[in-house]
């Protein structure tokens, strides 16, 4: 099955003077087939030659097509001047409530300064 919709995101940079990577807090609000909040943390690294990577753990709480519960999204993004990739998957075994057993992967689409998602899932 597929769920679609939009989301707003606030990223709050955190002070980490000890490590060479950046850290941000994630606060998302989902609309559409997903309705709820996504909260998490991101670790990122960008080099002078344009190569970057980020990893994040996001905890979703709300509803998916009317069924309520929680689940964890794992983000893994890479970028170079030539190539970009982003994998976002549901952590198997992380879902609760009416979403218990949920598996799948999410795509993020950025267009005209707005974010939308497509979540391919099985429940």
From TrEMBL:
Pfam families reported for this sequence: DUF3224
Protein origin, superkingdom: Bacteria
Stated name of the protein: DUF3224 domain-containing protein
Species assigned in the record: Paraglaciecola mesophila
Record lineage: Bacteria, Pseudomonadati, Pseudomonadota, Gammaproteobacteria, Alteromonadales
């Amino acid at each position: 099955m597929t769920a679609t919709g939009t989301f707003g995101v606030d990223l709050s940079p955190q002070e980490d003077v000890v490590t060479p990577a950046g850290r941000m807090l994630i606060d998302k609000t989902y609309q559409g087939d997903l309705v709820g909040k996504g909260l998490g943390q991101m670790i990122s690294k960008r080099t002078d030659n344009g190569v970057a990577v980020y990893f994040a753990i996001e905890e979703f709480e709300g509803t998916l097509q009317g069924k309520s519960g929680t689940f964890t999204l794992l983000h893994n993004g890479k970028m170079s001047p030539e190539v970009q990739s982003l994998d976002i998957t549901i952590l198997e075994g992380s879902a609760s409530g009416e979403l218990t057993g949920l598996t799948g992967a999410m795509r993020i689409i950025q267009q005209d300064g707005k974010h939308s998602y497509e979540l391919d899932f099985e429940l």
